[in-house]
TrEMBL record:
UniProt subcellular location: Cell membrane
PANTHER family tied to this protein: INNER MEMBRANE ABC TRANSPORTER PERMEASE PROTEIN YCJP, MALTOSE TRANSPORT SYSTEM PERMEASE-RELATED
Gene3D superfamilies referenced in this protein's UniProt entry, alphabetically: MetI-like
UniProt cross-references to SUPFAM superfamilies, sorted A to Z: MetI-like
GO CC term, one of those recorded: plasma membrane
InterPro entries with a match to the protein in the record: BP-dep_ABC_trans_perm, MetI-like_sf
Keyword check for Transmembrane helix: yes
Taxonomic placement: unclassified sequences, metagenomes, ecological metagenomes
Keyword Transmembrane helix: yes
Keywords, alphabetical: Cell membrane, Membrane, Transmembrane, Transmembrane helix, Transport
Membrane topology: Multi-pass membrane protein
Name of the protein described by the UniProt record: ABC transmembrane type-1 domain-containing protein
Transmembrane regions: 15-37, 86-108
Length: 113
């Protein structure tokens, strides 16, 4: 009887784990999904008061085209912001790697009480 209870407990814990993983994935991907869907809305439909739908009535890719079009003001601002983000994130990553490597070396070589 104990083996059966152990199997049931393992099965239930695995189900709970999978449910938690699915919830975390949905929680993580939901903002990106909403961002993409909002990009498909035409500007007037996006800011109108009667927008109650999760999906646009007239989907368009013009917002994404404007974002990557370097001749438009939006495209220039987006590329400048993207460049700044890459510079900051790259710098922080390199600095963290340097300090992390030094700390790992110290922890590996020195004896701590």
């Amino acid at each position: 009887m104990g083996i059966r209870k152990a199997r049931i407990k393992k099965y239930i814990s695995r189900i709970i784990l999978y449910v938690l993983v699915v919830l975390i994935v949905v929680w993580t991907l939901a903002p990106f999904t909403w961002l993409f869907i909002s990009g498909l809305f035409p500007y007037k439909e996006l800011i109108s008061d009667r927008t109650t739908s999760w999906f646009p009535e007239n989907p368009t890719l013009k917002n994404f085209q404007a974002m990557f079009d370097m001749s438009s003001h939006i495209g220039q601002r987006f590329m400048a912001a993207l460049r700044n983000s890459l510079i900051i994130s790259g710098s922080v990553t390199i600095i963290c790697l340097i300090f992390g490597t030094l700390a790992a070396y110290a922890l590996a070589r020195l004896k701590f009480p």
